[in-house]
Design goal:
TIM Barrel, Rossmann fold, alpha/beta, 3 domains, single chain
Length: 460
Amino acid sequence: MRILLVQTYLGRREDFFVYPIGLASIATVAMLKGHEIEIVDPNVYAHPHRELRERILRFSPSVVGISLRNIDSQLRIAPFYYYKALQRMLATIKETCDDAKVVIGGPGFSMFPEKIMDRHPLIDYGIYLEGEESFPELLDNLDNPGSVSGIYFRKGSEVVFSGYRPLPDFKKLPFPQRDFSELTPYMNNIQSIGVQTKRGCPHKCLYCNYPQLNGGRIRIRDTESVCDEIEYLVKEFKVTHFMFADAIFNEPREHAENICNEIIKRGLKVNWSAYMGIKGATKDFLQLAMKAGCRDVAFSPDGVSQNALDSLRKGLKEKEVLDNLHLLTSDSDLKRLNVIYSVFINPPEETFRGLIKTLAFYVKARMSLRGRGMAFLNWIRLEPGTAALHHAIKEGVVPEGLDLLPEYESDLKRTFYSHPRLRHLDLLLISMMKSLRLLKVILRKLKIKKLIGLLGNSTG
């Protein structure tokens, strides 16, 4: 069977392209089942819908699979609604190849499966959560989707769910092949090409839906398999940089250390980035990671004050956050690392004093990391099933029936948490940040680069 897998068009050109690793994983297992697969990412083309139409006409697929990865930019200052581009993409597919069955999946879909199926009747089937097992099974049972667990499908005018299925054993899955589409557009940024060493997250951060989407238990790949994939990327495609697309690369720390040591042992000349947890980011570990090629590291303490850290369920002490910043900005042995910090403005239980600490941390990080890092401020984007949403409803911050997948982009602003006792400060900070963004746009047009660098980015 001919299967065309499509990365959802985001609706605008981003700073860099992200290779669709999820689609590559699906394509690999489907190929091993004997299907003919191609992947197209409309985002890398100047005319996304025209390229999608031409690819469909050339390939003539029986099934078109869509990955909906991101719903929106999650930025309160500059929200952008990626989801709004889905309907036109569906129309392009059906207008070009009306006989093809349309299947949708991806984390964005799995956050809102019933709502998306209801709103978009052009979708025939939905893959809930990870699809390496359910998608190939569905291809064998298109006339009987109810026999495959983990599937949304239509029964007359009704949307039906076939029932939950356990997440696949990640260790037993083949690593994703990358020859289903051209890799060249993704070779210019260290964050474009991802390698997963594990799935799942045992943490219970207030705002995060990772445990819902990938499970609350870590499923680890063998060190050899991870490094086989890296070696495959280096030898077959001349990849020199990539990112570890894990929620937290250095948990468990021993697994991360084993990967670093194996990269060094194999002599793989690569540069990579990773999200890391503060607790495991000791000097010894960071030096090992750098020896293995680590060049960029991102931390999400999300809070700075103890009140914020506790309410966010980060399992961190304020001193640990400050010590981490001190280590990364003062230790001469770590000066080659580029560092990013992300913190939330006014999360639940924050105080005015805590807000001052957060802003001081932000300013210090920006000043100390100038030229080799960044700090970002943002507000919590409320998502289905998270403790943050329940907290916001209980506080009366948002109504119980709030639509977290609104029809219009302008309504995205209602989906962010706003601390009831610090809301007036939220408004002041939002106004200031918008003014800074406007000033940056003006300076960019005037090509005053020095001042642009001083202003930097506040919320992305």
